[in-house]
Each structure stands twice: as structure tokens, then as C-alpha cells.
């Protein structure tokens, strides 16, 4: 049994190292990218059928985006589209983006908001649909009540490439971002293949680094966390093969404050949208060395040999976490059935029961808080977040009030 386990781990490790070696952009063949405009790459339950929408087969050039549904219940309100041809940012003509999702947001350390998006497509009438594994956009907008304005213009190229073949590596999706010491760090998952709705399979998660504000990225092999679920001792600088890795295939970053200051916290969930959330912590200078991470066991912080305890029971979906000086609490968003908000006094919890702040009828997923929100600056109760919509496969700006 040990020999079989090591063989499986070796295969997974080889795939992870080969995929991570793709530091240059790799464009998948047209046959692999052809599903992007039909939304086959996201694993969400409502794939587009352009024929039923009245578009010519193969997709309309600008994709399936429709006007953003109006919603305002006094606490939560849909503000505007962030991406898509119907957005105020006109991302189809400015950035070559008809559809995208996720929109992980963080402050770059100088007051600029960086946003990393997942699978992105452009002109849906092109053979390759203008498909990219991921993209990065920027904003300095702090007045979000009338929408989020993106900076500059020009074709938005991919952050980092992938093989582009299902069963090996279909794509790489950013799940978390943080700025430390003037550098940008993005945690991403290497998706091996998309499965049934809300299920997908990963090779590994890893952390990419940028020293030039996101214009180029590099993935140190030491940050690769192979999704094998076993422990294998490897030399320093090699990918990690550890039993905790499957719990951290998708992530969210948080900088601690008060008694929790001096630590960076990483929240993790397994691949897909049905697992529980766990938490690790590390010193800022150790972000590229998972061997120095500590894990919450339910009673204490312990090293990589620990058995982490779930801090929020599943299903937990793509999530974001931040400190709110307005509430004097940590805030967590995810979207298992509508968008839910939780609070805690410490990063590891205990976390409150999820309070639904947006109904499932809005079809939102991947709620990613914006660092310029008043609730995260201590100037008011308004919390703004990016959220993707199933039908339109684009990112919208949503506002809620945390109190």
C-alpha cells in the first residue's frame, strides 16, 4: 500500500512541477478553449445555451451578459456591473473581456486595488473565443456607491498560463491575493478537470509572486501544495506533499490585528464547493515556505504534522475574509445558498452562524470584499464586494450594511 501511495504521489508531483514550470503564457489550442463563451469552464450549474438566447450558434461576439437585476432590500443592494460589455467599464472594448468571474480583490500596499479574475473570454465569434486562464485589473476608486471604475485600457493578458488540457491541467484560477513587503502574492488552484456542477478536481494549489505590481508573475516550486493527501518528505525548496494540502486548494488571505497582529492567516477549502473551512497562519516573511505554516487544531496552533480542525462546517464555497474596524470584528463572506456573512473576534473563530445578506435568486457566487469599503476602513457600515453571476458570467458590485 505504501508503494502504491508513493507512486500516485510521484505522478501528482511530476504533474505539479511540470505545470508550475510554465512561467511563460501558454495559449491552449482552439479545441480546448472553445467552451469558454458557453461557460463550460466554471463548473457552475447554468451553462449558457446561445441558441436559446437568440444568438447565432457559436456565441455572439460580446457574450451573454444582460442588464444587472435590480435588488435593494434596505440592507443589500446591487450597484452595477464591474465587468462585461454592459458595465460602466466597457471591458469588451477596453480590455477584450466579454465574460469573467471571481474578482479576488486586495490593496497593493499603496492604495490601489488589484483584482484577479478566473477564466476569461473575449470575442465569442473567434475560434479561440479570446480565452485566457486568468486576468488582472486595477482600480483606485474609493467612492463605490455609483460603481467601481477600472483604470487604464488595453488588452488584458493572462497572469500565468496553464497546459489547457482537461485531465492534465485545464486552467489556473486565482483564489486569494495579498501584498507583503511591496510584493504581490496570489494563491491559485491548478484545475485538472471540471466535474459535475460545483465540483472540480485540482492538481495542486500554489502561490505566485509579482515584484512589479502584477505585470508579471513567478511561482516558486516551494509554494506548490500537491493535492495528494499523504505525507512525503522532500528536500527544501521542493513542492509540499502533506496530508493538510487537500484542505487548502482554495484560499483567502487575512492580516491579523490586535492580539492577532504579526501573523498572516490563510483560510482553506478543498476543491469544489462542498468542503469545510480550515485555517493556517504564518509570519509575513514565510509566505513562500508552507513548511513553516501553523494550523489551528481546535485548541491550539501546531505545525504541519497537525490535524487541522474545521472552523466553519461545509458546505463552504469561494470565500473572502477581512477585519472590520467598524464592527471591531473579523468578517467572512461565502455563498453556499445565497451570500452569507459571518463574524468572529479572532481569525480562527468561533465564527457566528451565517446570516444571508443576498438571496439565492440573484445567482451570485464568489463574494470578494473590496478593501476600500467603509466597513473595512472604519468609516461606515457599508461593505462592498465583487460577486459573479451564473447566467451572465460576469462580476457585479454589491453593497451590504454590516450593521
TrEMBL record:
It comes from the Bacteria. The keyword Signal applies. Keywords: Signal. Residues 1-33 form the signal peptide. Residues 55-74 are annotated as: Disordered. Residues 87-399 form the DUF4185 domain. InterPro entries: DUF4185 (IPR025442). This is DUF4185 domain-containing protein. It comes from Gordonia liuliyuniae.
Amino acid at each position: 500500500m505504501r508503494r502504491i501511495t508513493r507512486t500516485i504521489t510521484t505522478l501528482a508531483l511530476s504533474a505539479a512541477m511540470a505545470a508550475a514550470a510554465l512561467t511563460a503564457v501558454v495559449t491552449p489550442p482552439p479545441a480546448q478553449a472553445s467552451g469558454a463563451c458557453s461557460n463550460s469552464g466554471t463548473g457552475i450549474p447554468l451553462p449558457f445555451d446561445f441558441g436559446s438566447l437568440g444568438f447565432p450558434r457559436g456565441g455572439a461576439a460580446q457574450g451573454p451578459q444582460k442588464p444587472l437585476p435590480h435588488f435593494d432590500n434596505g440592507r443589500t443592494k446591487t450597484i452595477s456591473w464591474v465587468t462585461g460589455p454592459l458595465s460602466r467599464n466597457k471591458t469588451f472594448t477596453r480590455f477584450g473581456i466579454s465574460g469573467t468571474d471571481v474578482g479576488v480583490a486586495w490593496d497593493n500596499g499603496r492604495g490601489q486595488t488589484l483584482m484577479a479574475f478566473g477564466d476569461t473570454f473575449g470575442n465569442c465569434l473567434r475560434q479561440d473565443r479570446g480565452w485566457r486562464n486568468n486576468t488582472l485589473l486595477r482600480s483606485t476608486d474609493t467612492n463605490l456607491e455609483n460603481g467601481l471604475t477600472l483604470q487604464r485600457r488595453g488588452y488584458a493578458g493572462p497572469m500565468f498560463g496553464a497546459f489547457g488540457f482537461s485531465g492534465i491541467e485545464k486552467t489556473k484560477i486565482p483564489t486569494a491575493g495579498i501584498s507583503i513587503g511591496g510584493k504581490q502574492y496570489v494563491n491559485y488552484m491548478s484545475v485538472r478537470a471540471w466535474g459535475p456542477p460545483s465540483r472540480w478536481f485540482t492538481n495542486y494549489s500554489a502561490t505566485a509572486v509579482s515584484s512589479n505590481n502584477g505585470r508579471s508573475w513567478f511561482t516558486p516550486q516551494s509554494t506548490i501544495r500537491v493535492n495528494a493527501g499523504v505525507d512525503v518528505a522532500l528536500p527544501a525548496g521542493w513542492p509540499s506533499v502533506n496530508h493538510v494540502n487537500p484542505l487548502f486548494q482554495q484560499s483567502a488571505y487575512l492580516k491579523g490585528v490586535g492580539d492577532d497582529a504579526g501573523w498572516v492567516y490563510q483560510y482553506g477549502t478543498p476543491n469544489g464547493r462542498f468542503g469545510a473551512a480550515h485555517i493556517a497562519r504564518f509570519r509575513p516573511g514565510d509566505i513562500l515556505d508552507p513548511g513553516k505554516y501553523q494550523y489551528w487544531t481546535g485548541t491550539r496552533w501546531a505545525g504541519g504534522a497537525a490535524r487541522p480542525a474545521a472552523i466553519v462546517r461545509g458546505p463552504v464555497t469561494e470565500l473572502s475574509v477581512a477585519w472590520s474596524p467598524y464592527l471591531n470584528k473579523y468578517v467572512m463572506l461565502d455563498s453556499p445558498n445565497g451570500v452569507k456573512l459571518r463574524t468572529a473576534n479572532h481569525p480562527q473563530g468561533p465564527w457566528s452562524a451565517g446570516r444571508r445578506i443576498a438571496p439565492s435568486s440573484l445567482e451570485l457566487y464568489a463574494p470578494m470584499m473590496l478593501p476600500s469599503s467603509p466597513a473595512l476602513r472604519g468609516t461606515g457600515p457599508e461593505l462592498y464586494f465583487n460577486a459573479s453571476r451564473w447566467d451572465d458570467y460576469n462580476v457585479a458590485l454589491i453593497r451590504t450594511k454590516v450593521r
